[in-house]
Amino acid sequence: MFKIPDHQVAGHVAGAGKLGPLVDDSGRFYKPLQDGQRGTEEVSFYESFSSNTQIPEKIRKFFPIFYGTKIMKASTGIEHPHIILQDLVSSRLSPSLMDIKIGARTWAPEASEEYITKCLKKDRESTSVSLGYRLSGLRVFIGDELGFYKPERDVMRKAGPDDVRLFLMKFVSSNLESESGSESKPDCSLVASVYGGDNGILSQLLELKAWFEDQTVYHFYACSLLFMFEKGLTSNPEVKLIDFAHVEEGKGVIDHNFLGGLCSLIKFISDILSDTNDLKNGLIEP
Amino acid sequence: MFKIPDHQVAGHVAGAGKLGPLVDDSGRFYKPLQDGQRGTEEVSFYESFSSNTQIPEKIRKFFPIFYGTKIMKASTGIEHPHIILQDLVSSRLSPSLMDIKIGARTWAPEASEEYITKCLKKDRESTSVSLGYRLSGLRVFIGDELGFYKPERDVMRKAGPDDVRLFLMKFVSSNLESESGSESKPDCSLVASVYGGDNGILSQLLELKAWFEDQTVYHFYACSLLFMFEKGLTSNPEVKLIDFAHVEEGKGVIDHNFLGGLCSLIKFISDILSDTNDLKNGLIEP
Q: Is the dihedral of CA B56, B62, B63, B67 positive or negative?
């Protein structure tokens, strides 16, 4: 009944003797509680968020539905506590996915010195500090026979600002080859239907931004945005927030760290949209 | 002809044998070039900014006018190069002033390790990391006889999030005592005329915010917002940006660090405005 998810792009992957998430065929996602504080903090967040009546419905839809916790046989074969969540991709056949960790800073001010040092190093080595976000995972569906374009984790980790812009363009392109080394210029043929439009990703990010300009309840450190869509007549693009092991109380202050990174990502996506338009209208050279 | 400015709230103060800014009676401010890279970088910024045709006029008004550089006798009595700027307070008799250093991070990614370590320590010890900004100076005019309310530098430096909120309230209050230890609750009697209204500080900050959501030319590290107003029939509140010794090229990326801090400050000021309104309308207890 439980199986390893087909569509994971980042995080721990379940395997022989390895702890990782499981899914069932009723659309639920079982995430093993992480060690120590992280696991309990993630459960605390879901409990607080799901019972918080001040969260507007139009914001709640950006978060996975929480169904509680359960001790069950994990992917390792051993009993382990799990968080039960909505499986965000269960209704999709071949989704293209991108996982973007938001914030120039992935550590809370209250974290331990050791943890801060470790995070700060990663934040400075990746694009977190420079762009306010970094890519954690990417998988673009090319076609039934060609499968997926999926750059190696190491390639993602070493990506600089220009690479990140290119990956954001590849996510909405059709001319990719499954070899991640491919150097063809992404055609951005899906940009209007995925990033653009009233229900597109940009529009959803702007809804989130408006909430982050005002909400002072939670600070989301090391939290990711998950972008999803499918090729076809209706790409049905969706944005979700995931990974809440480092959420802290906002204490009356907005999450300026998340908001800054979100605004930076919004600007990248707006630029890709307007460049593609200018290209189409002959305003810039290909 | 040159004298030490009356209305300085932060930064190096000129004195016997001490290098600091000077003003003249024609409304110009002479800022001694800082040592090494800082001084030259600040000049570079002013030269680049004043000749940049892409800066909208409504944004240019937030910056001091730049009149070039000059080697002249400094406050120490020794010849020293100075940046010549508009004296922002020359037309005001008894201005209330607040200097707010914007950004959770006051260091550029390209800075030296030694400098980053020093800044990071200050950012974590102050409210920079938690609020996305910190207060660097405050001076509130009380009356011709009582003079100014001006907390000690050390008090400002140690201010936590709640203290910062209180200082932002005191800035627009009339019931202060010149003793900075005074514990009376600030009355926020000037909040509507200084923070509120079409020409108020909040409205000016929102104009700046819109520019920061889009501009990718400059990243302003360790830069301050200066708030100014005068008691009287027209308080004429003004916001200016000052201190550009650590401005870097934006390279196509928005200044998410400045923008995040600016949004956090905007939320604090909006909260003070709406709390005062609620108090007036009896919606909350005094």
A: positive
Q: In this structure, what DSSP letter does residue A98 have?
A: E
Contacts by residues B153-157 (CB-CB < 8 Å, ≥ 24 positions apart): B155/B180, B157/B126
Rounded to whole angstroms, the Cα distance separating B136 from B138 reads: 7
d(CA A126, CA A153): 12
Rounded to two decimals, the ipTM of the complex is 0.94
3-state secondary structure at position B194: helix
**CA distances to A47, A76, A243, B209, B248 from A42, in Å:** 9, 21, 8, 33, 37
Nearest CA in chain A to B219: A130
Residue B109 with chain A: CB contacts under 8 Å: 124, 129-130
Calculate how close chain A gets to B274, using CA atoms only, in Å: 13
User: What residues in A contact B271, CB-CB < 8 Å?
Assistant: 252
pTM above threshold 0.90 = yes
3-state class (DSSP) for residue B227 = strand
Residue labelled with tokens 């006051």:
B106
Mutate to test the interface with B, among A256, A273, A274 (most CBs of B within 10 A): A256
Identity of the residue in B104, B266, B271 whose CB atom sits nearest the CB atom of A257: B104
The token pair at B257 is: 């660090």
* A110 at interface of B, judged by CB pairs closer than 8 A: no
Measured in residues, chain A has a length of 286
pLDDT, mean over chain B: 92
- Chain A residue nearest residue B215, CA to CA: A267
DSSP string of B229-265, one letter each residue: E-SSS----EEEEE--TTEEE-TT---HHHHHHHHHH
Residues of B with Cβ-Cβ distance to A252 under 8 angstroms: 161, 271
Q: Which residues of A touch B220 (CB under 8 A)?
A: none
By mean pLDDT, which of A137-141, A176-180, B32-36, B117-121 is the weakest?
A: A176-180
- Please tell me the predicted confidence (pLDDT) of residue A179: 59
Exposure string of A190-228, with b = 16+ CB inside 10 Å and e = fewer, is bbbbbbbeeebbbebbeebbeebbebbbbbbbbbbbbbb
